[in-house]
Design a protein that fits this description.
The chain has about 110 residues and is of the alpha+beta class. The chain has one domain (about 10-100): His-Me finger endonuclease fold, CATH 3.40.1800. It has 3 helices and 4 strands, in the order αβαβαββ. The strands form 2 sheets. The chain has a two-stranded antiparallel ribbon with strand order 1-2. The longest helix is centred in the first third of the chain and has 13 residues, at about 15-30. The chain starts with 16 loop residues before the first helix and ends in a 10-residue tail after the last strand. GO terms for molecular function: endonuclease activity. Belongs to the HNH nuclease family. Keywords: Endonuclease, Hydrolase, Nuclease. InterPro entries: HNH, HNH_nuc. It comes from Sporosarcina quadrami.
Length: about 110
């Protein structure tokens, strides 16, 4: 089955009976606990992220060796680290304006 044509790569996988069974099995296997922080988990996460090169590889998409149960906080942290849109030291304030946070680091390093 070719999953690349969905709106977001991998979306169709999450609608399959096989994925739902694997997700339920894995959730129970780790007792519903986030594998990073020990809080209640709710996202069965692929350690190797699904992309165009592996979306049709069941060794990536459907292997419990590539899964971990995360809470929303750890899952968001995982994706922020991989997909952080801002340069280090910059954030948005409460009004949505870009601002620089002085971290005390020497920014003139060569």
């Amino acid at each position: 089955m070719n999953y690349i044509q969905s709106r977001r790569i991998g979306d169709k996988i999450y609608q399959t009976v096989a994925w739902r069974k694997l997700r339920q099995y894995y959730y129970g296997k780790v007792h519903g606990i986030c594998e990073r922080c020990g809080e209640p988990g709710n996202v069965v996460h692929h350690k190797i992220h699904i992309d165009e090169s592996n979306v049709n590889d069941p060794n990536i998409t459907m292997s419990e060796d590539n899964l971990e149960l995360l809470c929303h906080t750890c899952h968001n942290r995982e994706h922020k680290q991989v997909h952080e849109p801002l340069r280090e030291g910059f954030t948005f304030n409460a009004d949505g304006e870009l601002q620089y946070e002085d971290t005390g680091r020497d920014t003139n390093q060569h």
